[in-house]
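User: Hello, beginner here. Can you help me understand these amino acid letters and fold codes? It all follows right here:
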Amino acid sequence: MSKFTVMYKSTNSMYLNVEADSLEEAKETAENTDGGEFINAGSGDWEYDYTEDENGNVIGSLSKNGFRIEQAEKISLGEYFNYDSSGKIDGNKDVFLSMGGWQIKKTTVYDEPAEYWETAGSQLNGIGAYGPWAFWGGWNGEGAFNKNNYKFLVTEDGICKAMSWVTGSKAEWKQDIHSYEDGALQKILETTVYRYQLKEHPKNESGRHIGFVIGEGYNLADDILDESKSSVDMYSALGVAYKAIQELSEKVTVLEKRLQKYKGEEQNATI
């Protein structure tokens, strides 16, 4: 059995009767008075200070910043907070710390270290300190390394998967609103769609994609780029495509009217 030295502080309340014109003057007078003039109030308290192990090492202390653990194999504060340096909390392998409904897990993914802050027990939602997943939500409990088993997922490679992507677009959040009349169809025709492969991609995927490329020599309309010109604004791209469809519809309507007129003239000529 180990031996510990647990140190406590004993504090006593003292008072001094002071005559003064203000609170500040009373406090200043008390501060400048010798301690021997103060009267014991008959009350006090015990306060934890620190703990030493049998070798004299401080393993726990209470400072102005709160309770601090210097060395410990296990820590438990009821059922809310638990720490186990062996990585086995409540029998769960690789779990080193649990707090409330969350747990911190250290494990290995694809032969590389990974650390996660995740929902305790179910691992339903989580945040990765490092590892293949940066954020995830709605895991169904199957194949943890398969993206198809998550409703929401952001990988360390910058790939995001979601069940639905909703963009806020209320008029009250916007200003300088006017119709887009910059020839959307022409901008689409001047933009090239490419097949490409990401240089960095998850180890279990090919990294093959279809989309746009930003860079010298690649055709892409500026209207669908963000302010930095380094990323594609997909909401803007959708807006341009939507406008281009409207322009195509107008062209089709004009052609249909011409065709109807031509058919009418042809019928009249036959009669």
Remarks:
- The CA atoms of residues 157 and 202 lie 7 Å apart.
- The chain has three domains: 4-72, 75-162, 171-270.
- DSSP finds three helices and 17 strands in the chain.
- The mean pLDDT is 88.
